[in-house]
Every structure is written in C-alpha cells, then in structure tokens.
Amino acid sequence: MTLLEIALPNVDIDLAYATPANITGRTIYRRAICLLHPDAATALARAADLAAGQGCRLRVYDAFRPVEAQWLLWRAFPDPEFIADPRLGSTHARGAAVDLTLCGGDGVPLDMGTPFDDLTALSHHGSTAVSAEAQANRSRLLGIMAAAGWEHYASEWWHYQLPRVERYPLLWDSGAGSRMM
Questions:
Q1: How confident is the model at residue 175 (pLDDT cuts 50, 70, 90)?
Q2: Which one from 81, 151, 156, 166 is the annotated catalytic residue?
Q3: Where is this site: Transition state stabilizer (predicted)?
C-alpha cells in the first residue's frame, strides 16, 4: 500500500515519537516522516483548509505509526484506554488516524487543557476539569475535524480517525516502505 507524505499548507509537522520527549522516554521513529493513507491525507487537507478559514493552523504529532512502534508504546504504557493493544491493531498502523492540535495563525498551540499524550482522564474530550477556554478549543478542533470527515476518540482530545477504519490494512514498517523504524 502506498502512503502519502504529508506536506500541506497550514499544517505543521512535529512528530512526538521522532524524539525522546514521549511516553517511552526514547526515540521511536528513526526517520521523522509524516505519512497517511491517501483517504486520510485528503481529509487532513480539508481540515487544514477549514482551520485556515478560522485563522488557525494544525500541528500533527503523529500519523501513520508502524505496528513495530505500536508495540513499543504498548510495552511502555499497556493501558487500552490510551494505547491500542497491537495484537488487536491500531488505527495509526492503518495510516488512517492522526494526533494533532489546533494552533493560532502565529503557530502557537491553543490551550487544550493538557499536553499531547497526557494519558489521564483530563484528556477526555468531555472533561470539565479543564478550563472553559480549553474546553472551547477542544470543541473547535472537534468541529473542524468532524466537518472534514474525521471521527474523534473520546479518551484523547488529540486523536482522530477515519470512519470504518477497519477497511484499511494494518501495516508494518517494511510493508509500508516507510523506513521509519
């Protein structure tokens, strides 16, 4: 399967797993490249256009995540609420999911109440334990992504995936030809 490299106007790429500043404490991706299935790339472009119409940008923290990377995350934090069990498959390993935030036109991320990969109940979309501003920003991101054809994951304000994600095959690094690992 061919995945597309993401290089879009109004989309900044900041792959969290290409640095040691992530939940594992080590670099997971040897090669920092943002890839998505063509359907997901099209939906992300729609979301970027919608964000731009509101004077905003998107910042992508993760997109395609090879199965090998999913195993590393699972070993570091084996909680199926936040990390998909790699034996069951991850939406990221299908190239059909993206982790992202909304930034102002200046490129500074809006307040979402928690950082990306804060694996606690505060990260739930419906959390009222974060500020009203953060709740409004999460709702704004949700509106943009839903209008662009994405579904949200209730436990993580940053995670969006394509509908019927199971139709996309799981991909290992070698099968995707990504050479990320």
A1: confident
A2: 156
A3: 65
How many CA atoms, within 13 angstroms, populate the side-chain half-sphere of residue 43?
Answer: 22
Helices of type H across the chain: 38-53, 67-76, 132-147, 173-176
The CATH number of the domain holding residue 126 is: 3.30.1380.10
Report how far residue 157's alpha carbon sits from residue 135's, in angstroms, rounded to the nearest whole number.
Answer: 10
User: pLDDT (tens digit, 9 = 90+) per residue, 113-167?
Assistant: 999 999 999 999 999 999 999 999 999 999 999 999 999 999 999 999 999 999 9
Annotated binding residue at 92?
yes
Residue 63 maps to a domain: yes
Residue 181 lies in a domain: no
Average pLDDT over every residue of 163-172: 96
68 is an active site residue: no
| Domain that includes residue 38, residue range | 4-176
